[in-house]
Structures are given as C-alpha cells and as structure tokens.
Amino acid sequence: MSTLWATKAVGWVERSETHRHPSAPVDGFRCALPILRLFEHYSRLAGAAHAQFFPRIAAEFQRCVGAVLAIKGQDYLLQSDRRLAQSIRLCNPYVDPISLLQVDLLARWRAAGRPEDALFHALVATVNGIAAGIQNTG
To answer: Is the predicted pLDDT of residue 17 greater than 70, yes or no?
Structure first.
C-alpha cells in the first residue's frame, strides 16, 4: 500500500458517502496492519537488502497508518471494530511466537542448504499454525 493509494481511497470514501460501505478499501487494508511489526524479523532474512529497504518500507507503513486514521477519523487502528481488535489481541500471543519461530527455522533451514528433513517439516508446521491462527482471527 502506498500513501498515493490511501490518498485515492480518501477521494473514493468522500465520493461514496451515500453508499452502503464507503470505507471498504480502508477496511480491507487495516487487516494487514497488526502483522507489520513482525515484518522486520522476516526482512532481516534478506541480509544486506534489509538495511536498504526496511527503513523505506517502515516509513511508508507509518504514512499509510496516518492516512488510514485520517480517512476513518480515528485515534488508533481498529477503533471502529472492537470485535476484530479483541480477536487479534487474543490471537497474537499464540501466532506471534510461532511467527518468530518460523523466522528462526527459516534462517536455520537456509543455512543448512535447504534440506527436506525435520527442520523443513517444522518450518511447514509453522506455516500451517500461522495460517490456522490467522483464519480464526475473523
């Protein structure tokens, strides 16, 4: 997502005031916001590219958060959807550690030459665990 997209979304929201779901593009975007804090861990797997790209991505993310809050007229993310916010708060203590484990396993698997062994199967299990946790968030 970019600030340009968010700016276009503002225009769409303003033109759609009388429609049934005027903030649909913004609502779709907000679901991805809680997982960004884990992105830095995954980004570090990119080696030198992390230092080049992560600061730009993080800054763009912050601009997008600001735009979403402005569009929604809110002080914090998910303010208008307390059920989803609660669901994410309950899910994160389970999914976040699995995500961090996945980063560690992925680094170890790559360093070992990417064999299809117990390490690989553990990595696949983290993919399934994260997918199940996210699916159950709502």
So the answer is: no
